[in-house]
Amino acid sequence: MSSLFPTYARYPIAIVKGKGSRLWDDQGKEYLDFMGGLAVTNLGHVPDEVKDALVAQLGELWHASNLFVNPYQEKAAKLLTDNSCADAVFFCNSGAEANEAAIKLARRYHQKVLGNDRYEVITFTQSFHGRTLATLTATGQDKVKEGFLPLPEGFVHVPLHDLPALEAAITDRTAAIMLELVQAEGGVIVVEPEFLRGVRELCDRHGLLLILDEVQTGMGRTGKLFAHQHYDVEPDIFTLAKGIGSGFPVGAMLGKEKLIPAFTAGSHATTFGGTPIASTVVAATVESILKQDAPARAAASGEYLIAKLSEKLLDLPVVTEIRGRGLLIGIQCTEPVADWISELHKRGLLVVSAGPTVIRLLPSLLVSREDIDRAVELIAAVLTEAAAAKASN
Ligand SMILES: *Cc1c(COP(=O)(O)O)cnc(C)c1O
């Protein structure tokens, strides 16, 4: 019997080793990994440059405290601000915590810098923002809220791509609008450019902050270092986590210069945020992503993968759409995909769902064409068999 709380419906595979796009289980079976630890291992598993930096740092210093000047953290922050529209970074340990920091910063900016009492954050149905009490309340999916009442105040949800509904939801309590640019857990829904432009205009007109949750879309995943760089829109705040540490637990909340005075000494903190080890891993990950041009490779591989999938799958009666951006791709099916995912795992390809009827693909940004061809072949085989089984029923 397991000594763990049963919070996960775990796949019956014990992964014990990884390298690049390959994983191995405790029986020695090899898998081609097209789920990337849910957009965490963007450079593949155990990437050499990050590993070397981490191993070197392990012999120097693990932790001192955020009560001291931390040159490692300064270096990681400067790499992020030099390569984005942000001017300052707060490091934490997860995506949920990064979003908590964003929500707190938005409230505090209104209450302490602007001197008003705005606190409400508008988010979108089908969104996902994390599992802390505030971020699960921000999340636009009821399933994450069951049994956790009462929920904290200050969150309103509107449908994505409905600008009139968004405008109607803005009141004199509204502090910010928060969204993902690809709703990932929500089914791989890409935000339309006109909609984001409209959101930015509403924020500017009503004095609201635009918060982008780039926890899953960040670090090259969508074909740019950050997904908002596909749009001619800049956020006031954006959050990162999954891909920023190559598997080491790290989160980051980034903001524009005008927000810096809102977080004064003592207003927000976390013990482990940006430790020497974490910051070394972040710096090595960002440097390696930039040096290898990983976002551009993700863009090219994503186009190739979507084209291949479209060619092999769109004629099947069980598939209705292939969508996504860069290497965050969803295969929309007509029925539940859980059994097909299990079958793919048995055949050595690891993929994951995004909601009940979408197969989600999140390979390494450095994935090879051969591995893409192999994955498409396996997916096409399983879905062709599923379509044939359906036809004979
Ligand atoms: C995974 C995810 C989160 C939560 O991150 P954790 O590190 O699990 O807390 C928040 N937002 C988005 C968009 C995510 O994909």
From TrEMBL:
Any single Pfam family the record assigns to this protein: Aminotran_3
EC number per UniProt: 2.6.1.11
Keyword Cytoplasm: yes
Binding sites annotated in the UniProt record for N(2)-acetyl-L-ornithine: R131, T270
Localization (cell): Cytoplasm
UniProt keyword terms in alphabetical order: Amino-acid biosynthesis, Aminotransferase, Arginine biosynthesis, Cytoplasm, Pyridoxal phosphate, Transferase
Keyword Amino-acid biosynthesis: yes
Chief localization: cytoplasm
Listed GO CC annotations: cytoplasm
CDD domains for this protein: OAT_like
Family per similarity comment: Belongs to the class-III pyridoxal-phosphate-dependent aminotransferase family. ArgD subfamily.
UniProt name for this protein: Acetylornithine aminotransferase
Lineage start: Bacteria, Bacillati, Bacillota, Bacilli, Bacillales
Gene: argD
